[in-house]
């Protein structure tokens, strides 16, 4: 069985799930290039918990965890199966206690909005891993390192967040200009990833003078650490998708491991 890459996707607006945006098209192309894994372990910026949990549902529900969008977005269902056995096995690998595998969650929009583009048939089992708000960046990195064996067991580790995520300064205009501070942070993060500078990524708040404007809260940055931590010595790292949405949302994708050609740049 081949070693699967680890993939981070900047998910942006939930509307990417139903609109023919260039980013959605790129995810579809990327899914075709990747092929079909045995299962997906998904880390989404939108499942924040105290403690670390995994979904153990045999049929995880589609969660519409947003407001103010068109009715057709709320009609979307992504009926992928779960994988309770994978959830239990991963909980043991991470050293989690009793109750870590739960059916209290499903697939939030950080997960299903990109999964329905990567695997539109919804035939790949999905398990979600929560983000413990009590962990430091180093704590998330250490947890992620323990997921490494999954890549050799047919599992795609998929993280969903954004390298820049500022909703307070967002613009809803088409082709909104990208502020200098947003473009700078995204570029510096890309450089740190490319060069494997772990400590720089863990100390992301100091990467640029306005790093805290790029991420007023850390939740959309943390998933990136789960992919960066899985890079093995000598492995390639690529950016199959780049660009910004609504001015202050970076849509950069990061792939660790065997990479297909870049599928889209914006």
Structural commentary:
With 266 residues, this protein is an alpha/beta fold. The chain has one domain: LigB-like (Protocatechuate 4,5-dioxygenase, Chain B), CATH 3.40.830. 29% of the residues lie in helices and 18% in strands. The protein has nine helices and twelve strands. It has helices at 22-34, 71-74, 84-93, 109-118, 137-145, 180-195, 198-202, 211-214, 222-228; strands at residues 6-10, 39-49, 54-55, 101-102, 126-132, 155-161, 237-238, 241-242, 244-245, 249-250, 254-256, 264-265. The strands form four sheets. It has a six-stranded mixed sheet with strand order 5-2-6-1-11-7, with helices on both faces. A two-stranded parallel sheet has the order 3-4. A hairpin with a 3-residue loop joins strand 9 and strand 10. The longest helix has 16 residues, at 180-195. It is globular, with a radius of gyration of 17 Å. The N and C termini lie far apart (34 Å). The model is unreliable at 259-266 (pLDDT under 50).
CATH architecture: 3-Layer(aba) Sandwich
End-to-end separation: 34 Å
Major β-sheet, in short?
A: 6 strands, mixed
Identify the strand order in the major beta sheet.
5-2-6-1-11-7
Rounded mean pLDDT is: 95
Count of structural domains:
1
Write the CATH fold name. Answer: Protocatechuate 4,5-dioxygenase, Chain B
Q: Shape from CA axes? A: globular
The strand count comes to: 12
State the helicity in percent bands.
25-40%
């Amino acid at each position: 069985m081949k070693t699967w890459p680890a993939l981070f996707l900047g998910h942006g607006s939930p509307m990417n799930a139903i609109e023919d945006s260039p980013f959605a098209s790129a995810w579809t192309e990327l899914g075709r290039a990747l092929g079909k894994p045995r299962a997906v372990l998904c880390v989404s910026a939108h499942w924040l918990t105290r403690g670390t949990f995994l979904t153990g549902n045999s049929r995880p529900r589609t969660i519409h965890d947003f407001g103010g969008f068109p009715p057709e977005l709320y009609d979307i269902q992504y009926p992928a199966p779960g994988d309770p056995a994978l959830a239990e096995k991963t909980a043991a690998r991470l050293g989690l206690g009793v109750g870590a595998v739960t059916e209290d969650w499903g697939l939030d929009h950080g997960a299903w909005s990109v999964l329905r583009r990567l695997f539109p048939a919804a035939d790949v089992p999905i398990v979600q891993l929560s983000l413990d708000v009590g962990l430091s960046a180093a704590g998330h990195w250490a947890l992620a390192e323990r997921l490494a064996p999954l890549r050799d067991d047919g599992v795609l580790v998929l993280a969903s967040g954004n390298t820049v995520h500022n909703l307070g300064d967002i613009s809803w205009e088409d082709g909104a200009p990208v502020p200098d501070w947003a473009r700078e942070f995204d570029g510096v993060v890309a450089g740190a990833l490319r060069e494997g500078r772990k400590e720089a990524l863990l100390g992301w708040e100091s990467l640029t003078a306005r790093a805290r404007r790029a991420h007023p809260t850390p939740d959309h940055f943390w998933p990136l650490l789960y992919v960066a931590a899985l890079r093995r010595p000598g492995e390639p790292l690529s950016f199959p998708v780049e660009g910004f949405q609504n001015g202050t949302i970076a849509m950069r994708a990061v792939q660790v491991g065997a990479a297909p050609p870049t599928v889209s740049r914006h």
